[in-house]
Amino acid sequence: xxxxxxxxxxxxxxxxxxxxxxxxxxxxxxxxxxxxxxxxxxxxxxxxxxxxxxxxxxxxxxxxxxxxxxxxxxxxxxxxxxxxxxxxxxxxxxxxxxxxxxxxxxxxxxxxxxxxxxxxxxxxxxxxxxxxxxxxxxxxxxxxxxxxxxxxxxxxxxxxxxxxxxxxxxxxxxxxxxxxxxxxxxxxxxxxxxxxxxxxxxxxxxxxxxxxxxxxxxxxxxxxxxxxxxxxxxxxxxxxxxxxxxxxxxxxxxxxxxxxxxxxxxxxxxxxxxxxxxxxxxxxxxxxxxxxxxxxxxxxxxxxxxxxxxxxxxxxxxxxxxxxxxxxxxxxxxxxxxxxxxxxxxxxxxxxxxxxxxxxxxxxxxxxxxxxxxxxxxxxxxxxxxxxxxxxxxxxxxxxxxxxxxxxxxxxxxxxxxxxxxxxxxxxxxxxxxxxxxxxxxxxxxxxxxxxxxxxxxxxxxxxxxxxxxxxx
Length: 473
Known about the structure:
alpha/beta
């Protein structure tokens, strides 16, 4: 298996902080991103891939649904390089459509479903998608905005409750907790999947042959586009290859290989890179169970975490705040003793928040990290190593095969430790391009280095610190 194209010098100071048996350099298989799902389904077909309000979908079922979605795309003329826009909250349909699009050689583009018609028009013009998957309550806005792009072949709609357990689906609709909308401009998600060719069990080999006709070049072919809003002005589509995301998943696997994680919470939206890039594929890579939440309801989340004995909890600042406030108001609530890993990104958490979280997840490693859409999310993380001293304001050290430096804002020259400057990074998970924006990519991606625009410094031990995020006042 190939090594990373750029070999990080062994002299980098952060290597001595790595945990026990954590590798500096990894081997990367030349495989598409959906390889993780296919392997999990082959080796652990009956393990639960995702749980949605108690509706458990096994890895075998997940793969079959993704394959059917992929075949339905091909039947409808959607294939290699075409964009499939997915406008839905976290739900099984979002995951199925995302990985199914990649299996057809198309590019999955998860978007925030709450965009206005005017905002959506920008994305339709930028992406010219062939197909859109949307929740039925957003279908009207999607159909109106889609008129600016004649390339649209189909709009596929689905209701959030379609994958609820039967009783919950019936009761929520009966009690009007969930509204069902008529979408005359679209085809229903289940009917769309039913358009896939059917095969007898003995002919499954034919189904696989159809998929293998789609040749994926993992290093060159784009798997996912997520939009970054870090800059002033119009959002930029960050295009990530299959290999970019595979490399990031394997680096995080290596980093936490000494921590037991058999299940993970998906409360971060799939239209964020940590949802669609890391969390979902991190689960597939080791056949873990994914607990899927469409919205972050703190009472509901805690109830499920306690019931399911979930081990992995990825937090953004709002989730930290919600957990702390909940336990402050309900001190009698049982603690989340099964959580073994509690991670966050980009913003270092204060000592006060860390101590409060430690009281909620007493057995967990609480680690921050640093990552962007352009890096497939976390590329710097605090080591889980005996004797490692986490320092206030720090975001950790670069993961395996990630090189990093601090450069002068004007000259671009590398600066010595403890100097303030722009953070630049390089490695196998760094994005390929900005969609339809060649000038911007020339500005930020030079000689293999991605210039993040974030300001920080590195201390003598190789630990990095954030001083100011891009466009932060």
